[in-house]
Design brief:
The chain is of the alpha+beta class. It is about 35% helix and about 25% strand.
Length: about 90
């Protein structure tokens, strides 16, 4: 099933908790260097419009549970991915 099909019928609900998972491109191991990992976590946790309840950053992927505040789930994920993408580009 294509990824866009998975989003059909999905709605963002304020104050709802969501399990979030995303991978690095091609599952590249980026998050083993302390400095890179620190920047990634700072960027992800600074996303406005959502509150992270718990998270873990693995060498090639991220898991977290967040509660939406004023932002949609789509915008929150887009911001997380774009902020971590910038890290991989600058390595």
């Amino acid at each position: 099933m294509p990824f866009h099909e998975l989003r059909k019928g999905r709605h963002s609900i304020k104050n709802q908790e969501y399990l979030i998972t995303f991978n690095t491109q091609n599952r590249e191991i980026l998050f083993i260097d302390f400095d890179i990992t620190s920047v990634a976590i700072r960027n992800i946790l600074s996303i406005e419009g959502a509150t992270w309840l718990v998270w873990v950053l693995m060498p090639d992927h991220f898991h977290g549970i967040l509660r939406l505040d004023e932002q949609t789930l789509s915008k929150t994920i887009l911001k997380c991915k774009s902020k971590t993408l910038l890290i991989s580009i600058n390595i």
